[in-house]
Amino acid sequence: MKNRSLFVLLTVIVALSMVLSACGAPTTEAPAATEAPAVTEAPAATEASAATCENYVLVPKNLGNPYFDTANNGAQEAAKELGITVLYQGSATADATEQITLLNSLIAQKPCALAISANDSDALVPTGKAAMDAGIPVVTWDSAIAADGRNLHINQAVLHDIGAIEIKMASDIAGPDGGQIAVLSATSTAPNQNAWIEVMKEELTKPEYAKLELVEVVYGDDDDTKSYNEAQALFTKYPDLKVIIAPTTVGIAASARAVTDAGLIGKVFVTGLGTPNQMREYVKNGAAPQFALWNPADLGYLSVYAMHALATGEIKGVAGDKFTAGKLGEYTVEDDPDLGLNVLLGLPFIWNIDNIDDSNW
Amino acid sequence: MMSSSSVSDAKSVKLISENAPAVSFLSRFLHWEWLLVGLIFIVVIVNTQLTPYFLDANNLSRTSSDFMEIGLMMLPMVFIIITGNIDLSVASNMGMSASFMGLLHNMGVNIWVAALAALLLGTLGGVLNGYLISKVKLPALVVTLGTYAFYRGLAYVFLGDQAARGYPEAFTYFGQGKILGTLIPFSVALFLFMAVIFGLVLHRTTFGRYLFSIGNNENATNYSGIPVAKIKFIIYMLSGFMASSAGLILAARFGSTRPDNGTGLELAVITAAVLGGVDINGGKGSMVGAALSLLLIGLMRFGMGLLNIQGQVQGIAIGLLLIFSILIPSLVRSISKAGKNINWRSIMFTLIFLVIFVLFFIFFFWSRAAVIASV
């Protein structure tokens, strides 16, 4: 029993010494040499000037996704032009909790700015706020954090256009008789996919799409195996299924593969958002006659220019701010009632059998 | 005082003495808790050398709240493991309670009423576990495995694929707020307070003694007239209550709730308890050790995160540490028992794992040298 009190005392001492030492008077940031915890101290919180920070960080929803890797290529190109270092850090799965833990450790390293593709628009708000309070500008791209959790959102295309174009492609593919359609999305919490699905549901109430029937929305979690299995489940559950809309590059590739493997080409079609290199064989074999996207490399490129402009004070992050993003030209910050402050990249682009060979990424 | 003079062939040896047997100074330190303290010191020193952001008060404050839900669920888990049982449903209970509160909040119910309802539901979840395990006498592993799936399913039924969001700031204070004037998050203060209470109950009350007794020999305890079934029921109910509190803290920390909140956390909870010296077979353990191991795991994960080591890869270090925590005591035991006949096999295995452990870190840092240099 005596030993136990000793442990408690020692734990308290260890904890206190770390807390007190860390709360001590502000000094340099160099780590102390030999002596244990009580020496290294922290610079006092508030300001982090662009001069003392070293790196910018690009955070995708998760690693191992070609869409995000392409965005990183664009980001690295921008980094080279600007003469800055952009680190590419992400969690292994598209999970909000993991992303928050990752962001906490990134914030701890005091980057110049963060560009995040969020796994959850609400859960990341406290983390976004903490970053902004620590003087780190937060830019979101591809998938936004709610407006008060970031300075700016880099929007790939108008929300409405993305949803509308997918329904239009589905309707073109299904033909004049329409038919049953299903949506194979990413994670159930993904802000961007959920917003597009809402638009799709609104579009389906229009008279010209009266013949299309949305039977189910399933979630592939941006995981290739899960998406493949969900697609197969859809074939079994809905034998009359005509079109699968997959507003995610992982989902569309997996669904097209599932259609091909099940020998359902010509009976079930796939459309949605995909990357040209991944989808080329499915456009050619007929599983996915049309699909759309924007250029994620441009999105990454623009995000880096935007966060650099914020970090260096070139723009303040209010509506009307203008900045130049290298080869992409000039952009203006807009204020949208739903999306908050955002910058629009451009329009979505449709690929089909005629132009699929023109792009190589 | 009895002396040996009554024994026929006795030499002049005192069999029982009034004084406690002499304990060498060094042997006072042969406790698992001291090893944890030593490891914590090593982790702190190594990380301080590697990155200037480790001992930053703001960073520590921010990262500590990441672990408090695990901590809160670990406290009753220590009780349960000491009795030789297990509770795999804690994280699902947490998700279920948080989702229930989210559902009520979405329907317009006052947040405090919703929170109370969630606590009630979580406790009921613990009651179900306790009833099936203590009264119906089903194996704890199977029951909690079932409720692990059942409660998570309920969480999805409550919230579907929506989120609950927009909690008032008075509520999110519990997860995001700090104690006035300091950098200590409220959840950390709450955890420390509860840890002290749970620790006192475990080590200073008869109830705590009963737990150890049940873990060592349940039948003997039962026949001694100790209400084993009632005790088991109580600890599972407690586990449900703490799991739902952890769910509320998580919801407050995120400012929103999704049905998949906390998936997989039960393993982190059990790891923290077992690493703290709580014997998985029951009968041994201490709250101080469990708290120290939570601190150790928290610091290790924080340090590795600062070096941009992936979450899954961090698991290698934690996993190896856990294996050590089992190998070393068994090694020490076999050495002290065997005297001259040392079990070379155990020593060899331990050394192999030690080498793997060290090699992992060397390899990892060598392969990330460029990245670390730029940090």
Comma- or semicolon-separated keywords:
heterodimer, A: 361 residues, alpha/beta, Rossmann fold, seven-stranded mixed beta sheet, four-stranded parallel beta sheet, B: 375 residues, mainly alpha, ABC transporter involved in vitamin B12 uptake, BtuC, two-stranded antiparallel sheet, 15 helices, 2 strands, 1% strand, disordered N terminus
Main β sheet profile of chain B: 2 strands, antiparallel
| Distance between the first and last residues' Cα of chain B | 67 Å
Mean of residue pLDDT values of chain B: 85
User: If helices are DSSP runs of H or I spanning 4 or more residues, what is the number of helices of chain A?
Assistant: 10
Write the CATH architecture name of the largest domain in chain A.
3-Layer(aba) Sandwich
Report the CATH superfamily of the largest domain in chain B.
ABC transporter involved in vitamin B12 uptake, BtuC
The CATH class name of the largest domain in chain B reads Mainly Alpha
Number of strands of chain B: 2
> What structural class do helix, strand and pairing data of chain A support?
alpha/beta
Strand content of chain A: 15-25%
Tell me the Rg of chain B in angstroms. 24 Å
Quaternary structure type: heterodimer
Helix-strand category of chain B: mainly alpha
**Major sheet description of chain A:** 7 strands, mixed
Question: What is the count of structural domains of chain A?
Answer: 2
Q: Could you tell me how far the N terminus lies from the C terminus of chain A, measured between alpha carbons in angstroms?
A: 67 Å
Summarize this, please?
Chain A has 361 residues and is of the alpha/beta class.
Structure report:
The complex is a heterodimer of chains A (361) and B (375). With 361 residues, chain A is of the alpha/beta class. Chain A folds into two domains: 55-156 and 296-346, Rossmann fold (3-Layer(aba) Sandwich); 159-293, Response regulator (Rossmann fold), CATH 3.40.50.2300. Chain A contains ten helices and 15 strands. Chain A has helices at residues 2-22, 66-82, 96-108, 125-133, 159-174, 191-204, 224-237, 249-261, 276-285, 296-311, and strands at 55-59, 85-88, 113-116, 138-141, 152-155, 179-185, 212-219, 241-246, 269-272, 290-293, 322-325, 329-332, 334-336, 340-344, 349-352. In chain A, strands 2-1-3-4-5-14-13 form a seven-stranded mixed β-sheet. In chain A, helix 4 links the parallel strand 3 (113-116) and strand 4. In chain A, helix 5 (159-174) crosses helix 6 (191-204) and helix 7 packs across helix 8 (249-261). The longest helix of chain A is centred in the N-terminal third of the chain and has 21 residues, at 2-22. Chain B has a two-stranded antiparallel sheet. Chain B contains 15 helices and two strands. The chains are: A alpha/beta (361), B mainly alpha (375). Chains A and B meet through helix 1, helix 3 and helix 4 of A and helix 1, helix 2 and helix 12 of B.
